[in-house]
Amino acid sequence: EIVLTQSPDFRSVTPKEKVTITCRASQSIGSSLHWYQQKPDQSPQLLIKYASQSFSGVPSRFSGSGSGTDFTLTISSLEAEDAATYYCHQSSGLPTFGQGTTVEIK
Amino acid sequence: EVQLVQSGAEVKKPGESLKISCKGSGHIFTDYWIGWVRQMPGKGLEWMGVIYPGDSDTKYSPSFQGQVTISADKSISTAYLQWSSLKASDTAMYYCARHVSSGGADRNAFDIWGQGTMVTVSS
Q1: Cα distances (Å, whole numbers) of residue B68 to A3, A18, A57, B50, B63
Q2: Which of chain A's residues have a Cβ under 8 Å away from the Cβ of B115?
Q3: Which chain B positions have a beta carbon within 8 Å of A96's beta carbon?
Q4: pLDDT at A104
Q5: What are the tens digits of pLDDT across the range A21-67?
Q6: pLDDT of residue B101
Q7: Sign of CA dihedral A93, A95, A100, A103
Q8: Among all residues of chain B, which has the CA nearest to that of A86?
Q9: Could you give the 3-state DSSP secondary structure of residue B105?
Q10: Angle B94-B100-B101 (CA atoms, 0-180°, nearest 5)?
Q11: Interchain proximity B114–A97, CB inside 8 Å
Q12: CA distance B7 to chain A (A)
């Protein structure tokens, strides 16, 4: 099983700050890495597919990068509505999710 | 509008059976893999398995193989997740979700998610 490890687990951030979340895979997964945002009591929403492809309708402040085993989700300028838990998800092997990173607004 | 609408919350006793549903609309249901994802209370997301409604090809995570059954009725654009004997540890929110592109492999990003079905198993 491919294990995805996200860091940090939790981040408290002020509005307009830049936020970086990393996801490390236990083995190479090419670019088969996707990012989701889940707000409290809501379903997850796709932000980025295949490491760096922004999904339709997602604000441009969200971007993804990386390949192989190391990936990054960046929020360039945090807005209050971005308070959520973020998950990475790999579809190279049997699909798995990272444990999640919770972003709180200070 | 492409959407997946799931059946309502369920409260069951241990040992009971259950089948929850996920109805698709706004897209060609038979052309897209539909997956199920578990989220236990306060926890993260777990990939359970997927089904291709066009031919009912089904893949399971080893963690869920034999514990649940995924099926679909393409005539009514609906996918199902069922248990034959529920356990307290099955208490969770269950989401269905659609692969981001039609056809292809049994693994991909999910672009459309249902609203979730909360299953509570308690004596």
Answers
A1: 23, 42, 34, 12, 10
A2: 43
A3: 47
A4: 97
A5: 999 999 999 999 999 999 999 999 999 999 999 999 999 999 999 99
A6: 85
A7: positive
A8: B44
A9: coil
A10: 135
A11: no
A12: 14
User: Can you read off the two tokens belonging to residue A75?
Assistant: 């929020």
Transcribe B12-71 into DSSP letters.
E-TT--EEEEEEEESS-GGGS-EEEEEE-TT--EEEEEEEETTTTEEEE-TTTBTTBEEE
pLDDT for position B106: 87
DSSP readout, A2-62?
--EEEE-SEEEE-TT--EEEEEEESS--TT-EEEEEE-TTS--EEEEETTTEEPTT--TTE
**Chain A residue whose CA is closest to B62:** A94
Per residue in B10-43, pLDDT tens? 999 999 999 999 999 999 999 999 999 999 999 9
pLDDT at B14: 98
Q: How far apart are the first and last CA of chain A?
A: 36
Write out the two tokens for B55.
Answer: 């031919």
Interchain CB distance below 8 Å, A94 and B46:
no
Instruction: Tell me the residue type at B47.
Output: W
pLDDT in tens, B58-109: 999 999 999 999 999 999 999 999 999 999 999 999 999 999 988 888 899 9
Closest residue in B to A50 (Cα) is: B109
Contact A97 B111 (CB under 8 A): no
**B118 pLDDT exceeds 90?**
yes
B107 part of contact set with chain A, CB < 8 Å: yes
